[in-house]
Amino acid sequence: MKEKKQRLFFALAPDHSDEAFRRLTHLSAVCGQFGRPVSADNLHITLAFLGMVTTEQAEAIVTATEQLRPPQAFSLQLNTLGYWKRSKVIWVAPEQPPAALLTLAQQLKDLALSCGLEQESRPYRPHVTLAKSATRRPEPLPLFDKIDFHFNHFGLYISESVSHDGRQSVHYRSLGQWSLTSRYQ
């Protein structure tokens, strides 16, 4: 019998209780007019996409993550809105990603490779997907005030298909969280 695999990824999830998150969900709704808005529960910044993973690989990933020495907590500013024609995605991103974010993403990419999982070779571009299946670039792009977030942890997530009223959608569920405040100092 073929082993069932899970679609996993590492990500930063914004705190749902703060004003910045409310503004991010509003921006997603505005951009959703041009496509399909991403649900508030699924807004995140992917750090490393792991793909389809076996239970054994998932256990190795969790074990390796426990040994990781991540950077300190950091803040970032989402201040650039854009559209990718090929993937039909409207996104918001930091114009200048903090060094700690780039370091963490590289650490997790290296961790995935060490666990035998292929990783993309293209450069990492941190962003939050606001709307999918956008048929065109919104002209003009909606105006918005910069959105500041602080991240104290990152997580491992699973992408699960769910059915609501006969419609399929995707839900991201946390499988584990790790602190960005150093335990080694």
UniProtKB/TrEMBL annotation:
It is an enzyme of class 3 (hydrolase). Hydrolyzes RNA 2',3'-cyclic phosphodiester to an RNA 2'-phosphomonoester. It comes from the Bacteria. A motif (HXTX 2) lies at residues 127-130. Coiled coil: none annotated. Its EC number is 3.1.4.58. SUPFAM superfamilies: LigT-like. A motif (HXTX 1) lies at residues 44-47. Keywords: Hydrolase. The active site is at H44 (proton donor), H127 (proton acceptor). Belongs to the 2H phosphoesterase superfamily. ThpR family. InterPro entries: Cyclic_Pdiesterase, RNA_CPDase. This is RNA 2',3'-cyclic phosphodiesterase. GO terms for molecular function: 2',3'-cyclic-nucleotide 3'-phosphodiesterase activity; RNA 2',3'-cyclic 3'-phosphodiesterase activity. It catalyses: a 3'-end 2',3'-cyclophospho-ribonucleotide-RNA + H2O = a 3'-end 2'-phospho-ribonucleotide-RNA + H(+).
